[in-house]
Amino acid sequence: MICLNVRLERCPARRRLRARLWGRSLPENSKIELILQDCVVQENWESLSSPYAGQSYNIHNATLKRWEQYWVDNVGGNVLFYGGLKDGVMDYWTDDVL
């Protein structure tokens, strides 16, 4: 397993992803942190304009040699994304129907 040693900041790409998934812009509070001995990136987020909230967990899958993100929300939504760095940008995709 690859563990992380990075400084985490708010991610505008995450906000764009959620807006694309749900078809609207979601102003939010977001907290991103390293957990489990710095081997998992966890994000907790919530909408400022509704009770909508969720979490994501990002890990490096050494067996499959890719990054994976499991994304869940408080209305029963969940998506498994996978990918990796391409041209210095984390690129995730999914086989799930969105």
Distance separating the two termini: 29 Å
The rounded Rg comes to 13 Å
Strand segment tally? 6
**Largest sheet, described in full?**
6 strands, antiparallel
Low-confidence stretches: 1-14
Strand order, largest beta sheet:
1-2-3-4-5-6
Helix and strand pattern: HEEEEEE
- The helix-and-strand class reads mainly beta
Number of continuous helical runs: 1
Principal-axes geometry comes out as globular
Query: Helical proportion?
Result: 10-25%
> What is the mean pLDDT?
76
Strand fraction: over 45%
Number of structural units classed as domains: 1
Write the layout of secondary structure elements.
Layout: H1 12-22, E1 28-35, E2 40-47, E3 53-61, E4 66-73, E5 78-86, E6 89-93
Antiparallel strand pairs: 1-2, 2-3, 3-4, 4-5, 5-6
Could you explain how this protein is built, in words?
It is a single chain. With 98 residues, the chain is mainly β. The chain has one domain (12-93). It is 11% helix and 48% strand. The protein has one helix spanning 12-22, and strands at residues 28-35, 40-47, 53-61, 66-73, 78-86, 89-93. It has a 6-stranded antiparallel β-sheet with strand order 1-2-3-4-5-6, with no helix packed on it. Strand 4 (66-73) and strand 5 form a beta hairpin.
